[in-house]
Amino acid sequence: MNEGQRVRRPGGRSARVVAQVHQAVTDLILERGYGHFTVGEVAARAGVADSSIYRRWGSLETLLTDVALTRLNAQSPMPDTGSLAGDLRTYAAQVAREITGSDGPAVLHLAVALSSRGQQGLQAGADLRAERTRQLQSMLDRARDRGESAPDALDVLDHILAPMYIRVLFGMVPLTPDYVDGLVDRLL
Amino acid sequence: MNEGQRVRRPGGRSARVVAQVHQAVTDLILERGYGHFTVGEVAARAGVADSSIYRRWGSLETLLTDVALTRLNAQSPMPDTGSLAGDLRTYAAQVAREITGSDGPAVLHLAVALSSRGQQGLQAGADLRAERTRQLQSMLDRARDRGESAPDALDVLDHILAPMYIRVLFGMVPLTPDYVDGLVDRLL
């Protein structure tokens, strides 16, 4: 039976395990950075068996991606301000804040690290992007439904997110509000 | 006396040491990846004393940056085709080829790694970017001298290089010629 397809009940033992494992991963990332701990260390820290982690997530890469996505969705939810310009400015400012925060580049370094972790890592990275792209696409679709003309999701990646990501990855910070707004205005 | 400011004679013992050390670094990068070897291991591989490396380069970060820049200048020299569109298209295609080659993302991963190696790493990364930006600026200045209107060097980073870098770092390859030309055309 495939654990990943089992319907999860909110609350209960299952939710507690997820919360404990996520917390353990978050702590280990803060202490050591992505890529510097094993499934066994996560399990020990969370007080669960290694096998529970493998059964639920399949691999360290998938677990890391799940944590990253949960974190992104909590800290950078897709805005709905009523206009595309407003949505994109709010979203870009959230991303800028997130990636320049105290442990901010962590998700970014994860996305980069995944691409050099073989097929499982590439798949985990693709899943992470697919989910965020799906959310971004909803924002763009809402704009089109209102009659606004909207760029493609990949244009948002290339011309708003990529410049901010690279500046942070290269240590070219801070990202000023003027700079971030400028990226949005230029794309629109 | 500051070794870094000493004039280097072409040829001779000095040039041999540089060549041997560069080769050792290139081999170790291919075998292990950036960040997974020490100055001592480079010295052993190159057949020189650790102190020779520290005297000449000061730190592993500075040495890695020197190797990266030498490599970039050899493989992606700045083109001079007579038009800005031609120059930028040629340059973008070179960069795309370089970063998607067999050990291609290596320089990219170096630039990312440097930003998390403290002050010396940040400085080395800044030096690497400053040198490449200076070369890019010459290309843009030549265009302006011919009467063409040219973007800023940072716009080239944000809207041509950053999208390609992020796609490679995230494993979203290949970079098709249409995609790469499209980035240039959009900026111009």
UniProtKB/TrEMBL annotation, chains A, B:
Database matches in InterPro entries: Homeodomain-like_sf (IPR009057), HTH-type_TetR-like_transc_reg (IPR050109), HTH_TetR (IPR001647), Tet_transcr_reg_TetR-rel_C_sf (IPR036271), TetR_C (IPR011075)
Residue ranges for the DNA-binding region feature of this UniProt entry: 38-57
Domain HTH tetR-type, first and last residues per copy: 15-75
Keyword Transcription: yes
Keywords linked to the UniProt accession: DNA-binding, Transcription, Transcription regulation
Metal-binding as UniProt keyword: no
Matching PANTHER family: HTH-TYPE TRANSCRIPTIONAL REGULATOR RUTR, TETR-FAMILY TRANSCRIPTIONAL REGULATOR
Protein name: TetR/AcrR family transcriptional regulator
Organism: Streptomyces flavochromogenes
